[in-house]
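= Paired protein data =
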Amino acid sequence: MRPVAIVGLDCRFPGAPDAGAYWEMLMRSGEGVGKVPGQRWNARDFHSPAGAEGHSNTTEGGFITDPDAFDNEFFTISPREAQAMDPQQRLLLQCAWRAVEDAGIAPAKLAGSNTGVFVGIMGNEWAQLHLTDYARVTAQVGSGNGYCMTANRVSYHLDLKGPSLAVDTACSSSLVAVHLACNALLSGECDTAIAGGVNVALTPALGIFYTQAGLSAPDGRCKPFSADADGIGRGEGVGAVVLRRLEDAIADGQPVYAVIRGTAVNQDGRSNGITAPNRWSQQEVLSSAYRRAGVEPSDVTFMEAHGTGTVLGDMIEVKALGGLHAARSGRPLSFGSVKGSIGHTEGAAGIAGLIKVALSLHHRVVPASRYATKENPALKLNAQGLRLLKTPLRLQNRPTIGGLSSFGMGGTNAHAVLESAPSYAARPEAEQPREGSSETAHGRTGLGSGVFTLSAPSAAALRRNLLAQADAVQRRRVPVGPLCWSSNLVKTGHRHRFALPASDSAALAAALREAAGDEEALARLTGQAAGRPLVALLFTGQGSQYPAMTARLYQESPLYRRYLDEADGALAPHTGGSVRELLLSGDGAVHRTGWTQPALFAVGYALAASVHELGVPPALLLGHSVGEYAAAVVAEVFPLEQAARLVAARGALMERLPEGGGMMAVRADPSDVAELVDGEPLVGVAAVNGPKSTVLSGDLRALARIESVLLRQGVRSRRLDVSHAFHSPLMEPMLERFARVADEAGGGVPKLPVYSTVRGRLLQAEPMDAKYWTEHVSAPVLFGDAAAQLLDAGPTHLVEVGPQPVLSRMARKLRPAAGERGHTVALVPGPETDGGELARAVAELYRTGLDPRWSAVYAEEDRLRTRLAPYHFSDAHRFWTREPIRKSAGTEPVVPAPQVPGEPVVAPAVGPGAGEPVARAAREAVGHPVERAVIEAVAEVGGYAVDEISPLSLLYEDLGFDSVMVMELKDRIQDRLPGMEAMSVQDLLPRLSSVGDLIGYLRERADSATAA
């Protein structure tokens, strides 16, 4: 059998709410067994120490806490549907999600894949409670029950297209599910598999059965292979593993807990009773698994036994093991059973053992087995080549084989052979940084710092998970680079997006905690994705330069460094020096035109290339004056080398022009100053940046004359600090020489939309050729017109590509309403920089809806998957039967009825889209008969409180409605509005986007009926 890797896992067992707590409990030989919770059944009503007929001999067992808690809003499941669901479905749904995250996969990324779901389950007590009250059976109660739905729920909510099935082979169910999952992977039926098991004890029925069959331990505790072994103690729990073919896991860099080398399943056949175990079948299933794994019995170091703690079961299992291992000379097989700590978890027993073995191989230590210190001498373990684990077994740092058995009460046996992960496979992270590496050094990335991301379906969920991540980061010393990288891969897919640059883990933990507790900080670091991004790059022009611009970014970001070096290499043959060295030295010569223009071009090109490498897709381009050269390179008008030659010639030729020219900003429209400009042949309009924002350029004496006239007219003006009169008639002496260079440089039609500031509009298949660039020198910069057209195209993001934000502010003034619809991101905020600008820009872009190419953010050594704290689900909503099961006055137990709409189990937490404004809107809406009818019907069908429903609530995305609920909604609305003309589901379907849409449609129908 080809190896299968366990790449992710999650579990919840008695005394252990997660995998970390499970391992900690096993290592201290703790237990999670206690009294039957009052929520389940009144144990004293069904208890008889002697095990009288219809009674159990114990009031104890292994129970998980809060099995009624379910984050239905996370999965967009209405309260009514959640109430009808078997808690085993709810528990496994959340467990599977966390296991997928633990595998380093964002669950949403599996949508549409052939991922399979294989679930072991043997209890169906919820159905026994809820499907026997026929008058209360609803569509939700039907789909909320049944073994198949336990697996199908996971496939449905994660949108998985692979096999999806539930397995009931009694106590071996979940290991048989793992066996089937491995076979499906190896046959190519699926590429990823989620295998798990779940068991929740809702009634005393099985406890009574165990007692009557002589299988129940009076103290409710399994004592595997102990001299005190006296029967089964019931347990419950849920566990799931994510499986991949080993070669696929390695190719994708997924951490591997352990490897499944071989599995086998068989049946007892006709033995001494259908519930009696069969030694020879157990021995054969081990042999089959060894053969499939390609190992000998002597290769196996330890075994997780089935180990129920029944005298007969323990004896037969030991003899089956001894039949294969008795010949081991001086090296007995170490074995134990987790059931001593958590009880016999029935359908989840196999997955409980599998996770224990996988963690043992991962941590290289096998926990001691509880109750092992007083082993049963009748088992004669030494003679069988066996050793019960009384103390933890330290595993050597080499490939190690472990085994796992799970036997079904009806005779279906399963065994799995596991091996430690190979040295060439990634392992879930070590808890300490690698020897010889500091966190700071290891944390260097392509941008100088990582970006930690988190997403959640609501602000409350985001705060809850920020705290969970802060706690986890604070507890573990893990380099910040892999932490951030893993968060980018896994913690994504939800509406509310959080992003924060991080350079070390201690600061990250503190910042996460601060954001969770500070509404303003959280709002600043959070955004929401809304539709497909449309990004406009605005390339800043001359006047934005300053000494040492982007020097810190160059030092901190290898990505930016690469592209600035590339631009510098293209410019150097034409500038006679290095732009890079000019910037790094902080030389004031950057203000000399011959250096200014090449330097701005280099910065613009390097920033644009960096954000493109980071996955920011430029859709619209606009450059102000010299900024248009870098925009043209991005639009593939000409290659970098030709553009560098042209911009270097432009700057050099302009610098050689005589002095005596200047520029002046005027608070007026061009038409207001046209007469003054026409009267001065050496002055022209250099730029029109918007209404009442004109720049004049030309001879200084002529500008002074215009300035004096404007002063008398009360028009404000301001001289600009420039060396020459750019975009004016004074540029004429350089045009001929520049045109010759432009002819040689060439230039074609842009391959991306360019909003030309020469034309003041979008270029329509027009070349940006020598003629265009020559005209560009003297022509007015029509930024206002070009930017207004660009804004009309509806960009979601205005990203300013330059050393400081100038154009984005001007653009906002042009179209305030259009600007409000988008997001402005300045790649460099100005002179006061620290080198983390690109990381902050990436964080802002992610928050506002873009999905960066995260691989470009990090150096290769930081692109390591590390485990993060799993998603922390809300426990605010509770769904359970209304009262525990109890004996009636007669002998028959009273079974509580299922919950129905309008009868909340526990006061619900805030519902979807709720909050005081929404609740107020709902209260206001119920003043009109149609609104009142719709909101009440929606609340009733979904099981919500009326004030949880708002006209803004989306029926499918927020409230979890489906086609069955829509049919019921139609009928309930019709009942509430008897005077309205009958309508069909087909009439409603196009109007069901939101509650408000439905209200509007029904009001129109009501108004039409009244008018008629």
